[in-house]
Amino acid sequence: MSVTVPGYSPSFKKPAETLRLRRKRARNPADTGPVAAFSPESPAELGPRRAALAAGLRLRPFPSSGSRSGGVAAASLRRNPFARLDNSPRPTVGARPVTDPTWPPTDPLQDTGEPAPHQQQSKHDISSSQSVEFPVDWSIKTRLLFTSSQSFTWADHLKAQEEAQGFVQHCRATEVHLPENIQDPRLSAELRCAFQQSLIYWLHPSLPWLQLFPRIGADRKIAGKTSPWSNDEGLQQVLMSEWSISFTSLYNLLKTKLCPYFYVCTYQFTVLFRAAGLAGNDVITAVLSPTTRGLREAMKNEGIEFTLPLIKENGQQKQKVSERSLHVEESECMAEPEEEQLNSDEDEEESFSWLEEMGVQDKIKKPDISLKLRKEKNEVQMDHRPESIVLVKGINTFTLLNFLINCKSLVATSGPQAGLPPTLLSPIAFRGATMQMLKARTVNVKTPIYSGYKDQFSLEITGPIMPHSLHSLTMLLKSAQKGSFSAGLYTHEPTSIFNTCTQMGKLPNKAMLEKELANCGLHLETLSQLTQLPVLGKSSLRFMEMDNYMCNWRS
User: Fold this and answer.
1) Are 306 and 292 in contact (CB under 8 A)?
2) At which of 76, 103, 122 does a domain end?
3) Beta-carbon count within 10 A of 433 CB
4) Distance between CA atoms of residues 357 and 424, nearest Å
5) Taking 90 as the threshold, does the pLDDT of residue 53 lie above it?
6) Which residue(s) pair with 145 in the sheet?
7) Are residues 544 and 447 in the same domain?
8) 260 has a pLDDT exceeding 70
9) Would you say residue 468 lies in a domain?
């Protein structure tokens, strides 16, 4: 049985005794460690330490990276960052404007499982720039997320009269000019009507129970939906007949420069038709992507002349992509076993040995079968890739129109999209089209920052957002948000390749072309942007920030 000694504890010490022991170690002149360097007798530390001791605390320096016996400079010591030696109150929690380099934060509306646009990186180099205007982007966006320190309440709950006025302004192609700075956007009926006008687009066919964009990779979303035409050939013929009429109507509007552009979205590829004068071309152009060797061969058989702008650049016959594929192919051939290569050479020699027996081997040119097979393999390798983009210009676009109408592979024969005609998207009305609206909603949240919270106002736009809608919305927000906002842009990736520059010859007269397209239904400032040469290449806009009416963007 252990002997109990009064006032003695083998495992615990009184706080006063612990402080006394530490104080003695700190004041020992033989101790040259970090504790001695952090002596409490220095005048600069005397006041705070007295306050700390009064509160029952004793600060100790962080251990240095060196040995305990080595001398350490006082500048290398750090105090506890969580300790508050002074009695100043903590900062109040509230919403106030704070400069935050991480603004805007991640999406406050919903977690989609995908990285924010300013965090996304494509396979290509990300470019960024600053200017008064962002470059033209011919890709189709599926979602826009605008954030600002100014409220978006002006975009909520439009009155019936404002909604009707927005429809009328769109149908009559009314050009609205807003002031640079709207003091109270909630009281601006002109702004709200223009916002309604910028959300309108036209669609064919219209099946309310089906999401008709995007079509590439949409089988999972369409699966299980009612499709009475899938097994009814008569109904399929009716749908295709109506679709052909609408397609032809759109092309006629494009040809007469009453429609600036439109998209044909199939389950395998997308086609962008642009009127003469857009993207630096003085004739009608059509770009298809992605394509396959079979589709390109079928177009050739129909007499459609086309080029591959990412392979034949500046009109030269040098095929850069093919050369890269050829180099890889040659390296693979060098790595083949020697026996297999010898066998192929022997078979090829035996196949032409009868020519030598007849003595006419010198008069007949031996075909290079290996080169032909290698070329065909290279063409197949670029299928479904950005390099397979096809450019059709001028009168050949009309031949392409007839080809697409009569192309049996344009419509899926099996699966959820079986018998469903391609989707036609246009900024203006056309025969058989249905007026549709982009969906808009606003959310106001408080986001935490270092010193408290701040208000974040968000405006989300979803749907097939075409280039003209993106530009129109940014023009409105410049006025409504006093020239300061940011935007995350989510792209339908198969359409990013449409930003490839397809202009090959001399640039046309931009002023004259804009005058000829004045009746195409777009705002003149939007039309001026669409006439510019594309500069984004294979990428598209991912993030945009407007600060004091100056635009920063990243792709």
Assistant:
1) no
2) 76
3) 21
4) 63
5) no
6) 460, 488
7) yes
8) yes
9) yes
Would residue 209 count as lying in a domain? no
Count of other CB atoms within 10 angstroms of residue 312 = 17
pLDDT, tens digit, 9 for 90 and up, residues 334-385? 444 444 444 445 555 555 565 566 665 555 555 555 555 555 555 667 887 8
Q: What share of the chain is helix, strand, coil (3-state, %, to 5)?
A: 35, 15, 50
Which distant-in-sequence residues (6+ apart) come within 8 Å of 320 by Cβ? 311, 313
Task: Say what the pLDDT of residue 131 is.
Answer: 72
The total domain count for the chain is 2
Residue 343 buriedness (CB in 10 A; 0-12 / 13-18 / 19+): exposed
The pLDDT of residue 80 is: 60
Same domain, yes or no, for 56 and 154?
A: no
Residue 387 lies in a domain: no
The answer to whether residues 546 and 444 belong to one domain is yes
Q: Which two tokens stand for residue 255?
A: 């040809």
Mean pLDDT taken over the chain: 77
Please compute the mean of the pLDDT values over residues 284-297 and round it to a whole number.
Answer: 94
- Domain coverage including residue 55: 15-76
* Beta strand pairing call for 390-393 and 141-148: unpaired
Report how far residue 177's alpha carbon sits from residue 290's, in angstroms, rounded to the nearest whole number: 39
Within-domain flag for 508: no
Residue 330 φ then ψ, to 5°: -65, -40
Q: Are residues 99 and 142 in the same domain?
A: yes
Is residue 37 within 8 Å of residue 74, measured between CB atoms? Answer: yes
- Which strands make up the sheet holding 423-426, listed edge to edge? 390-393, 285-289, 270-274, 261-265, 423-426, 200-204, 434-437
Could you tell me if 544 and 459 lie in one domain?
yes
Same domain (yes/no): 465, 551 = yes
Residues 126 and 66 in one domain: no
Residue 390 pLDDT class (50, 70, 90 cuts): very high
CB 261: neighbour CB atoms within 10 A?
26
The answer to whether 102 and 118 have CB atoms below 8 angstroms apart is no
Supply 478's token pair. 């410049």
Whether 27 and 136 map to the same domain: the answer is no
pLDDT per residue over 424-449, tens digit each?
A: 999 999 999 999 999 999 988 777 77
Which pTM does this prediction carry?
0.69
- Gyration radius of the chain over CA positions: 35
Angle at 277 (CA atoms; ends 273, 279), nearest 5 degrees: 65
Cα 343–chain centre separation = 51
